[in-house]
Amino acid sequence: MKPALTITFTRLLSGGFGLLVLVGLGVLLFLGFSGTRGNTQTLLSELSDGLIETVVDQIDGQLQPVETQLEYLARAVGADQFPFDDKKAVSLLFEGALAATPQVTGLLMLDHQGGRVWVDRDQHEIAIDSWLKRRSERLELLMQQPPTGSLWLEPTYSPWLGKLVLPLVQPVYRGPRFVGLIISPIEVSNLSDFVSQLSTQVESPVFILFDSDQVLAHPKLNHLLDEWVDQGALEGRSSFLPKIGEIGDPALQQIWGPRRKQDPFVMPENAQAFTLNDSDSRLLYLIRPMQRYGDKPWVVGTYLDPKQIPDVFQRMWDILIGGLALVVVILLLVIWISRRIGAVVDRTVAGFDAVGHHPLQQVEDLPGSRIQEFNRVSLAFNRMLKGLRENETSQRLFGQYVPQAVAHELLQQQGELKPRQSEATVLFCDLEGFTRLSQQLEPSRLVETLNSYFSSVVDIIESHGGVVTQFQGDAVLAIFNVPLADTEHARKAWQAGCDILRRVEQSRFCDQQLHCRIGINSGELVAGSVGAKQRLNYTVHGDAVNLAARLESMNKIYGTRLLVSESTARQLTGEPLAYVAEAMVRGREGKVRLYTLEKSSSASAGDHQNPEVDQ
Fold first, then answer.
1. The HAMP domain covers which part of the protein (predicted)?
2. What pLDDT is stored for residue 308 in this prediction?
């Protein structure tokens, strides 16, 4: 009696002894590794917090003094004893203030009466005039609705300065009365210069994003802005700051990409940390949102290669690698034996996988094995592969002589197709002047020409869902709706006929220009296998088939290339049909109304989007 649970020798050896070794050493590895991991995580998080805190503090140290300076100037100018109307006094005050804030480009004061005082650091220029000469919707709005305190505006391009600036606005009040504004524009280029110095200091690229997707400061920003200013590109932009994809920094460009993951070791308290991996590198990103400089948030951040972090991982890897090395040494013999046996199994599995995913001719036989069980599997696999190849060859040859749809149905019905009576559309296509052609060409050349022609015709018919049941000399008989059901069988047959005419007229077959005639009819017919027991042929019978053949022949009478019966035309609403005649057809009682392709559409027979049928 076979036991309910069995196990192979390989599993017993590798699993039993391997489990004992792994459990013992695994406990030691876990205790040492988990302790080291916790210490490493704490250390890396503190280092990351310190790094991003340094960056944020440095940026605050660059911008906060400007706010403090403007608040001081607003109090000084707004004091009752200050000669507010004396613009020279204001300019002298501003000149002194600029000395304490080198990051500021200049100072501008606007009063509610239209006066303007501008003190420029770089040009050592003092301008006193009326700001109303340089009217600005933004300035007028600020003068009408002054802020209650310091207000950072969005970065903007100043045509007057020819620079991209970050304006800080400070209202001036004399008592409760608003008297003017002090504006301090900080050049974005100065901010990028500062960020470049900061990047050198922290040994990693520092950046500032505005509204998450625009670059406010970056070591590469100034070069890009200089190009835009030279080209005059800033004035035409809806956003004066470049997008993260325009700065030329691949690492920054993918910062919000879907591949970012939370770093398992770096979890700072006051910042966000995540990693991005690609085939070439792994980067650690540290970012912190800042909401204090305007309505839209800034994102201050940096990215660095984890290798730049002090090598705190070394202790972890020392413990892990040492333990694993010990496990490898102990299990070496077991692994070697298991791999030898596993290689045979893998080769067998790969063989079965190849059978399912690759052409059988590309699948290689399995080699024999010294292990009897594996050798029997190899022999059985090779016998199976040989049988599958023979079956595939039979199916391929079968498909060349039987329509694909019929072959599929034969396989589903165990080789027996019962006769079926149904409504279908028959397409009969015959070459014009075939007798003359057969007299002109060598037999081999004639067959080659016919095969080329038939290939094109069959491709078109099958692309429209039709089935070719017979090749009668130079003629093709095709049906639609049998054996594959299709409610649009009449329209599909019509479209196939139009496409055949177009293809034949526009192509040359083995350097021969051919012409064909087509008859299409819809009606009841019988489809089934006909012939002797040892050789059957799937075909269709009925008056509908005969009429389609008659219509093909009647093209010669009316000088047409495609004739459609009334039963088919009734189902072709919207197709470019033209009435031909009402004629008697041999073998039928009564007359048959005949239609053909409109002359206006005959040049593009494949186009099926034409006016309504003219009936």
1. 339-393
2. 60
